[in-house]
Design goal:
Number of strands: 2
Radius of gyration: 28 Å
Number of domains: 2
Keywords: Cell inner membrane, Cell membrane, Ion channel, Ion transport, Membrane, Transmembrane, Transmembrane helix, Transport
Pfam family, one: MscL
Membrane topology: Multi-pass membrane protein
Subunit structure: Homopentamer.
Shape: elongated
Strand order of the largest sheet: 1-2
Number of helices: 5
Subcellular location: Cell inner membrane; Cell membrane
Structural class: mainly alpha
Strand content: under 5%
Largest sheet: 2 strands, antiparallel
Order of helices and strands: HHEHEHH
Length: 144
């Protein structure tokens, strides 16, 4: 059983996945800091002190606090400002990953063009070619 586990855990895909998850967690912290410490203060300064993280809607009449942390202690609240911040985090991560994949694809195409290993379309099987020719002849009204 131990040998099977070692085989499973040391396979390339599992190790690559683990590395990806660790890097993703670290990247998430960086983006959280970028949004919380840089973007949101700038948005707050431009909009006159708007701070999304403290916006909430009380769901209980017992909630009288003006700060989110205090309001959560008093009763149920809908912390929609926090959702806005998380949504901005997601959009930033998605945009950065899009740019990263786009850049990698561009590099791959450039490298493939240099080495002449660009992906070629798959060869069309002979029976498909024949059926295509028959279809084309039938369209024109000609016969074999």
């Amino acid at each position: 059983m131990w040998n099977e586990f070692k085989q499973f855990a040391l396979r390339g895909n599992v190790v690559d996945l683990a590395i990806g998850i660790i890097i993703g967690a670290a990247f998430s912290k960086i983006v959280d800091s970028l949004v919380g410490d840089i973007f949101m203060p700038i948005i707050g300064a431009v909009t006159g002190g708007l701070d999304f993280s403290n916006y909430f809607t009380p769901l209980s009449g017992a909630v009288t606090a003006t700060a989110l942390s205090e309001a959560k202690n008093q009763g149920a609240v809908l912390a929609w400002g926090n959702f806005v911040t998380v949504a901005i985090n997601f959009l930033i991560i998605a945009w950065i990953l899009f740019l990263l994949v786009k850049g990698m694809n561009r590099l791959r195409r450039t490298e493939d063009a240099k080495t002449g290993t660009a992906e070629k379309p798959p060869e069309i099987p002979a029976d498909v070619k024949l059926l295509t020719e028959i279809r084309d002849l039938m369209k024109t009204g000609r016969t074999l």
